[in-house]
Specification:
Layout lengths: L1 E2 L2 H6 L5 E2 L5 H9 L3 E4 L2 E5 L4 E2 L2 E2 L4 E7 L3 E7 L1 H26 L3 E7 L4 E4 L2 H8 L3 H9 L8 H11 L2 E2 L2
Antiparallel strand pairs: 1-2, 3-4, 4-7, 5-6, 7-8, 7-11, 8-9, 9-10
């Protein structure tokens, strides 16, 4: 798996990984038809057909984890940031888009994918409150986090691991 640069990830959608096999036919199948890839001990989800709030994630893969033993949690570029940057690009051209991209290119969030329905939800305050309602100490830990990074993977993933809600493959 090739980890794409932050700027490539931003401009080509929020997914950060590209599978490399050395075989063009296999890579085409992985790009268009595969839903998941297990590489070593990591799970990756194909974001090609995924969208959240009407915004597509892009054509490549994002790192993922099993969530509640039946859903998929994954980390990708914040769709709200991507939407704002694309609006800046539309209104102010390439320079406006580049300025917006520089601001948001490192803004990642956690999403829940429900395979049975195809729905993707961004983990926001409401979902976090629901997950943590019986764990006030972890709710306090989340509330103490920097508001700009509160729902970023580096903040949320350790809390979700403490709850036993996410597992690797």
């Amino acid at each position: 798996m090739e980890h794409r640069s932050a700027s490539k990830t931003f401009w080509n959608g929020g997914a950060s990984y590209k599978p490399l096999t050395g075989n063009k036919k296999t890579e085409k199948i992985l790009k268009k038809d595969a839903h998941f890839i297990v590489h070593h001990d990591s799970l990756f989800i194909n974001c090609r057909k995924l969208s959240c709030q009407g915004v597509r994630f892009g054509n490549w893969y994002a790192q993922a984890w099993l969530f509640h033993h039946e859903y998929i949690l994954f980390s990708a570029l914040n769709i709200e940031a991507a939407e704002q940057a694309s609006g800046a690009s539309f209104m102010f051209g390439a320079i406006g888009g580049a300025i917006a991209a520089a601001k948001y290119k490192d803004d990642y969030r956690c999403y829940i994918y429900y395979p049975n329905t195809g729905i993707v939800e961004i983990i926001d305050q409401q979902i976090a409150n629901r997950l943590l309602e019986e764990h006030p100490e972890l709710q306090q830990e989340l509330d103490k986090a920097d508001p700009k990074k509160r729902f970023a993977p580096e903040t949320l993933l350790p809390i979700l691991r403490k709850l036993g809600l996410i597992t690797s493959v």
